[in-house]
Every structure is written in structure tokens, then in C-alpha cells.
Amino acid sequence: MKIDLRSPNIVMKLSKLGSFHQSKLSFLRSFLREFKDWEYKRDLFELNEFGYGTAVYSFKKNNRVYSLICFANQLKEEERSDRVIATKWDAAFTLHDGIPTKRDIERLKNEVPKQEVGRLSYKELTLSRANKSVRVFNHVVKNLSEGKQPDVSLLSSVGYLYRTTAVYGSGKFGLADRFRIKNREEIYGPFRLEMMLVYLVRQFTFDQVNHVAKNINPKKAVNLDPEICRNLGIGNSTGLGMAPFIVNHPTLLNNWVLARETILKEIREIKEVKKEDSDFFQKCLKRSIKNITSWITESEYQQKKIKSLLNDLNNFINFLEKDFNFSNEFPFNEIYKWTEKNSGDECIEYIVSMMMEPYDQIVDPLISKMSSEEEKYFNIPANRTVSELREILENKYKEIIKIDFSKSENNQNFWFISKNKEEPRLADRFDEKGSELEQPLAIARDIKKLYEALSTSKNSSTIDKFLLKNNHLRHVVRRAFIVEKFPYSEIQDNTIGKSIVPIDMLRLKLSFFGALKFDPRSDKWLRICMFQGAPLPQQLKSYDDSWVYNSLN
Amino acid sequence: MKSLSEIDTVSKRASRAAGFDWGVAEEIGKNIRMLEMLGMPGIKNLNYYYRIRDKKNFEKLSLISEENKTSKLEFCPITAGVSFLDQVRSLENLNEIKFQNIAFPILFLPFVSRASEVVGKKIYLKIDNRDFLLNYGSSIYSNSLNNGITALGNDITIKFLDNVDSFEEKEWKELYKLSENTFVEENDSLKQSGAGAGLTDND
To answer: N or C: which end of chain A has fewer CB within 10 A?
Structure first.
């Protein structure tokens, strides 16, 4: 039986994309699979009694070394902020290409803590900073220094000792451009080095907390139990900076979603499912419920989604146990059809993720295809005709070209870059100033304008002639020809409408990262947790790839 | 050192601020990135061009023909470049294309380089006494290592080069003969077994 890929008109809706969950495809999981055989080492740990100083951690294989350099600094209480207005952080990090010399460390000591206003070099690959969850960190220090383990329920409710507030890569602030390293096989999957940075930062937080506790009470202090460490991740506060990324990298977005959709299609096409595979699917599904019941958020929007997810999942498990037989033909197709009929998007996409768990052989080959050579598709094929371009719009933007942009609610917002932080922001066009400096992220509106302009142009006219009078639409002409080749490259929604929920765009990207426990703090930023339940570096060589469902929390 | 990603982003944003449409600004970002990657003075020329663009008018060349002459003003290198890139498929059959007075011609060059990739032909570009060979958008060979600002190209010529060999047939044969020394002379037995032939060839 041949199953079609799901239509981009369904999958690429923001409400759908905002319901994606981590999976076997997620970058942090594929990072661990790739680096499990690498030699991990703590090369330097020069912290004072309060935990301030420098540390270096590395992964090494053959002649390749990646080193995380950590700078932990004293921070006054009033200086600590996760918001982008912050200029100081509890710790700052960079991933260095190779073994850093003393000179490198001295150079970086001056630059890395400054983050966006510092300058990095082509020898640095990623950059980040993080703040303590002071409440949790102090609680852990106090208990360890008294020879006790901390209160696990407190740790569970937060999930981490530190949270990062940004992770930069790909040429930002002088960091190495991707072209310098893109041919390295170990980083074929997207965001591998960003994942490495976060993973090693996690280990630094454990080492630092142990070190501080030991210095308070050298005789009595104990180390944080490795099992508790394993159940802690790294938090992350993420704002709108991430949203335009998925609009500005259409072929990359396509490759991520296409990988997911291809896997779903192939799993639905399996005629006979082996018992071990169906058992594993059910085992992962049941174990994963803990990740939902421990998903704490004050956001009513997310609470509703979690409640409906749990409800739908319970119904699904009930269906599986009472009414379903895995020895039927094409059982995963039957499951998918059942969820489409009986569940909401959160649950459908959750089960899609879970279906991947037994199938390394389907998932693994697609991981290396999730990167993209975006430059290849940049040139506009200007010899194509107006009628061809119009046909692309009618096929690929069916819903978009029906939107009436003369209505103010469809035109409510604009995206801009803030002058003080050079970060993307969203504002009300009718209440705020600055819409004349709007970024080219109102793709739906501009596609509609393009469609209208094409409708009054001669069918046989070529695009070079069309552009002579319509160069203001050049950016969307380029996109339309990209969408023709890459069906999942475009969000099929209006990103400037009144009802837009920007965190849906963040959630999409973060789900591919492998984040858990999305905790929206408003409609424009959220907190997440990464690597919770992941093996510690010393455990990597023999770890369980379904670790994400082994969390105690 | 600035990364190419920073060069691309800043050039794009500056070009938008200078008044170009977003889609054109995207082209400029990629072009300046290409120039800087190849060691050519992209940022310098773009910066100077935008500095004087506020004070001086430039002619927009939309439709490219065999002879492109300005009436009074110098041609804007960006508009001329975008037009050339977009129209290159209808221009490639022309023997030679001439331009007079393109301002900051280094900014025009990457458009021609990318056009070389689009049509799959090498392009020879002459800017006054400087020669450039543009190889399918992937490299630029030049007799000039001028790292400064070129405010004006008086006479510019573009030729599409046919995809022909750069060597004589005699030279090829000589080299081919030498390469044959890596082959094994086949005897009857090897002819039978070496290619895995069956009992009959005409089944």
C-alpha cells in the first residue's frame, strides 16, 4: 500500500507546527548518537571557592577536538535577568575548534562574557550564556554541603540548575561561518555544535555545584547523585529571535519537515509490524506519560493543550489495549487514521513522534539529509513565465491567496529588528511606530500582492520582464520558485494576522531541537528544558537511545 | 575579522536602508559575501557607493542591449547588475555586450559572475584595462589585484565564452597517449574473463 505524504496545506499550518514534539529525529538525540563514541574529558577546572573561574571540557576523536570553554563570574542579584536587556550572566560559554591555547583562553576571557558586544574568531564555533536558577542551585549547594541529597521534588518542578538565554552559531559575532566546517561528517545533522555546547554546559553545572558545596564543607559535603544529575537538563529561555529563522531558511525548514513526513509515510506503509517493534512503541508511549504529567506551566494556553493531550493519550492507550490488534495489516496506518479522527493536533503529533521509536533503520538515513545548501536555490529562474509562476501560487499557496489583506485584522502586526539588541520583534501596526521599517517576513501578504500583480500580467511574459516593473516583489518571487521544489518550505499561515501565536513558530523549531516541557511565559517567549534524562558524558558509551522516556520526573 | 554571514546580513540591511527593495537587497548581500570571500573589496565599494548615492543621481539600466550608453548620469551598478542577471538567458547569444560609465563596477561584477553560473558558460568581463574571467559563479580569475575603490568603469565589455577546450587536439592526444600507460594489454584469456562476458554477446 502506498501512503501519500501529508499535505503541506495541513502540516505547515502554525497550529499544527506548534503541536510538534521531540522525536528520534531531534537534534539533541542525534547529537548524542553521533558523539557517543568520542572521548570526553574535563581538561581544566580552575574555579575559586565560590565557583567562579574557568573550565574546559572536550570531545575528541582521532585528530578532531571540540572544546567547551566556560567562564563563571560573580553576578549581583539585581544584574541577573533572562531578558535580552541583560548584559551580564552567571556564566558564559564558547565552543572552540580544537584545543585552546592559554592565549586563546585569555583572549576569550575578555570577549565571551560580553556576548553580543564581544568579538569571536573563526576558531570559535558557538557562543552562549546562562543564568542560575538561584533557588534550585542554592538548595542543592546547601544540601550537598550538609552531606545530603537535595529535594528531588523541587528539582523535578524546575528541571535544571541553569538556563541558557541564547545560543549563537554560524558566523554571529565573528564565529566561524558554516562553510568552514560543513564537510565534517560528524556535524552533518543541523545544530550539532549548538547541541554539544548545551550538553557540555549541563555537565559544567553539575561540576560547579559539587565544587561549591565541597568548599563550604570539605569534610561533610557529598557529590550530587548521578541519577539526580541525569534527571536534570538545561533550561532555556527563548524569545522571538528564533521565529524569523524558520522563515528565512525555507529549504532547511523543508528538509526538517520532509524528513519527519517521509518517516511517517514509511512507517504507515509497514504491512506487518514485528512484535518487538509494537511492544517497544507501546513501552515508550507509556513511559513517556511521565514527561507530560510533570510538564508544569502557568500558561493557560499551554495548560489547555496539555490537558487535551493527556486526555487524548489516555483514550488512545485505551483504544490500543482494548480495540486494537497489531497483527492486523498496516497497523501504524490504522493507528494514524484513528488519531486523526479522534484526537487533537497535540496528540496526533505526539503519536507520530512515538511511532518513530522502534525504527532506527527508517530514521537514521534521513538525519543526514536535514541540512541544506541554501545558496543553491537562491537564483530566480527569470526565464520562466508569468503563467508558470501563477500556477505555482495557485497550487502551493491555495489558502494564502484567499486571505483578504484589506481587513485590518489580517494586517495587524509587523516584524521589525530592534535597534538596541538587533533582535526580531513583533508589534501592532496600528498602535506602534516603525512599520515603515518592516522586515520581509509578511510572506502571506506579499504572496497575495504577487498573485494580484501576476493576474494583470501577460501569461507568456517571462519573469525577467515581470520583475522590471515589480522588483518590490522579488523576495517572494524567489520564495515561490523555492516552494515549487520544496513543498514544506513555507508556513501556510498569515504571520502578521491578529490571531498569530508567535510561540507556535518557536515551538516548531524547539521540537526539532528535542526540547521538552514548553512553558510559554507570554505569547512571545517561552522556557524549555533540554537533555533532561540524558546520559551523563561518562555513560555515553553504553546508553539507551530512548533515554528521553527514562526521566524520573 | 568579520564572518561572511555578518557581511551578508549587514550588506543586505544597509542596501534596504539605502532604498533598494528587499529582494534586491538580498541579492546584494549574497554578492558582497562572494566578493569578500574571493578577496575582492566588496564592503569598501558598497560603502562608498552608498555614501555618494545620497548626493548624486544614477541612471537605472533596466533593459540590457548590445550597447548600453548613459545619457548624462552614470549607471547604478546594482540595477544594471540585477537586470543583467535576470535577462542573461536572452543575452547569451549576443556576441559582445558593451556598457559605458557604470559606477563602482566591482559591485556589478558579482551579478555577472552569477549569470555565468545561470547560463553555464564562462564570461569574460573587461573593466577598462582590467580583465576578469568569471567561472560559473565559483571563481574569478583576474589580472588585477586592486583592493581599493573603483568609482567608475568607463568602458565595460562582456563576452560569453563558448564551452570549448582551452588546448589543441594535438596536446590532448599527447597527454592521452601518456595516460594509456596505466592500461593493461589484454590477451585472449583476459578478453574472455576480464569484462565478465557471457557465452554469447547477442542474446
So the answer is: N
Residues A53 and A201 in one domain: yes
pTM confidence score: 0.92
Kind and range of the H or E run holding A502: helix A502-513
Amino acid in position A43 = D
Within a domain: A458: yes
Which grid coordinates are listed for A144?
Answer: 550537598
CB contact under 8 A, A382 and B85: yes
Q: Are A93 and A197 in contact (CB under 8 A)?
A: yes
Q: Does B92 touch chain A (CB under 8 A)?
A: no
Question: What pLDDT is attached to residue B202?
Answer: 58
**Antiparallel, parallel or unpaired: β A64-72 and A91-97:** antiparallel
Strand runs labelled E in chain B:
67-68, 97-103, 123-127, 130-135, 139-142, 152-160
What torsion do the CA atoms of B89, B92, B96, B101 make, to the nearest 10 degrees? Answer: 20
Structural domains counted in chain A: 2
Find the domain containing A48 and state its range: 36-239
pLDDT digits (tens, 9 = 90+) for A14-68: 999 999 999 999 999 999 999 999 999 999 999 999 999 999 999 999 999 999 9
Map grid coordinates 545530603 to a residue. Answer: A148
Q: Which of A485, A515, A532 is the C-terminal boundary of a domain?
A: A485
Strand, coil or helix: A548: helix
Q: What is the largest CA-CA distance in chain A?
A: 85
CA distances from A329 to A262, A354, A356 (A): 20, 19, 18
Rounded CA-CA distance A416/A436 in Å is 9
Per-position DSSP letters for A365-377, written without gaps between them: HHHTTS---GGGG
Alpha carbons A486 and A378: distance in angstroms, whole number: 13
Q: What is the ipTM of this complex?
A: 0.88
- Which of A171, A467, A475 lies closest to B86 in CB terms? A467
**Identity of the amino acid at B158:** I
Q: CA-CA distance, B98 to B85, in Å (whole number)?
A: 15
Flag whether A206 is in a domain: yes
Which residues of A have a CB under 8 Å from any CB of B?
121-122, 170-179, 375, 378-380, 382-383, 417, 440, 462-464, 467-468, 471-478
Task: Report the 10 Å Cβ neighbour count for B137.
Answer: 19
